[in-house]
Amino acid sequence: MGQGKQPETSSAPEGPDIICYSASDRIAAIIMAGLVQCNYRAEFANSSYLAIIKAAQLLPRLVVVDINNPGSKGFSIVAALRKSVRTQHIPVILMLPAAPATLLDTLKKTYWDSQMLENAGDIAILRYPFSFAELIKTVESILSK
Fold it and tell me: Is the pTM of this model over 0.70?
């Protein structure tokens, strides 16, 4: 009998490490290029709806959400992720403009109720302007848990 080679199996997860959402193509391209250069399997979602769907289907280890203006749909992504039992454990990095803290409080009250905040997984916040090194440090900190 021939000795066929057994197929190699990998213990690495099939889905991406990170799903990234930004309404700005320029910011998304910079973030995605940097994450890929740092050997993360990253996937871009070009709409808030697609970010939610991809997170539910692929169960990434992290979701990065760029909220570049107060009307951004980024907060609705986090709200949807936290409402679902399937995705509420996924850590999130919010990238916010250097706006007053009251803006963040107002947006939290608009999109998140107290139950969701209690059940929320890790939510890290990076304020603009930040360096790419800060983003990678935050990603590594979350993914190392």
Answer: yes
6-54 tens-digit pLDDT: 444 434 445 578 999 998 888 888 889 989 999 999 999 989 999 999 9
Q: Does residue 34 fall inside a structural domain? A: yes
Task: Take residue 95 and report the two structure tokens written for it.
Answer: 């990238």
Which runs of consecutive H residues, i.e. helices, occur in the chain? 25-37, 48-58, 74-83, 101-111, 114-119, 132-143
Calpha distance 7→4 (Å, rounded) = 9
Task: Provide the domain limits for residue 66.
Answer: 18-143
Q: In angstroms, what CA-CA distances link 17 with 39, 58, 60, 90, 107?
A: 10, 9, 5, 11, 27
Given a contact cutoff of 8 angstroms between Cβ atoms, the answer to whether 63 and 51 are in contact is yes
In a domain, 53, yes or no: yes
Check which CATH number belongs to the domain holding 120 and give it.
Answer: 3.40.50.2300
DSSP tag of 84:
-
